[in-house]
Specification:
mainly alpha, 6 helices, elongated
Length: 214
């Protein structure tokens, strides 16, 4: 479109220049009429070109693009979630078996019978918690003290070989400890782990209002 307007402008310049030449005065009317028609064509072309440019711009101003709704950012996991869940598990051991009380107590002033009685309570409560949150089973089903064979390709975290080792597996030896492993773990899940929870709350026996007034 710009090329057509440029050519028409050049023709207008030529026709106007012809009017200034005396020898073309006899054709002045025809030249002027041609220039007038050409000027109308240029005006029409410029109007069409400008309308094509301005319509999208007006439409863009009047009808802005719809706003894009961004999804909310994913929730960032708490940095100490794992630590908080471990503390919550200790809280269960304390609640059911008084494990923390037993471990933090100075046992030097107690008799063996008293320690044994307390250990029974700890054993029963903690065993209940383990059975509820772990599926614990022995790695070796053989009796401790019996001869077993450790196969080739055994998991290093499931067998600890002691004594003099020579050659390649399988190895044969006496089972000192049958080992333990778990197939299921169900630790307590915490919704808010921005801080570590308490293992056991401090218990306070509140005095009644009547005792204070008397």
């Amino acid at each position: 479109m710009k090329l057509y307007i440029t050519l028409a402008g050049l023709l207008l310049v030529v026709l106007t220049g012809l009017l200034l030449i005396p020898s073309t005065s006899a054709y002045a009317f025809q030249i002027a009429a041609s220039a007038f028609v050409l000027a109308l064509v240029v005006l029409a072309l410029s109007f069409v070109n400008s309308s094509k440019k301005t319509v999208p711009e007006i439409a863009q101003v009047q009808a802005p693009p719809p706003a894009v709704i961004q999804p909310p950012p994913p929730a960032q996991p708490a940095e100490n979630t794992a630590e908080a869940e471990i503390v919550a598990f200790f809280a269960l051991l304390q609640e059911k078996g008084r494990l923390v009380d037993f471990l933090m107590e100075d046992l030097a002033s107690y008799e063996d019978a008293e320690i044994g009685a307390a250990a029974r309570v700890v054993h029963e409560g903690c065993k209940q918690v383990l059975q509820e949150h772990f599926k614990i089973r022995a790695i070796s089903e053989a009796e401790e003290g019996s001869q077993i064979t450790v196969p080739a390709g055994f998991a290093a975290d499931e067998y600890r070989l002691v004594g003099k080792l020579s050659g390649d597996p399988p190895f044969t030896g006496k089972l000192v400890h049958k080992g333990w492993k778990t197939d299921v773990v169900k630790l307590p899940r915490l919704v808010d782990a921005r801080r570590l929870p308490a293992i056991a709350p401090a218990e306070v026996e509140v005095e009644s209002s009547k005792s204070k007034t008397t």
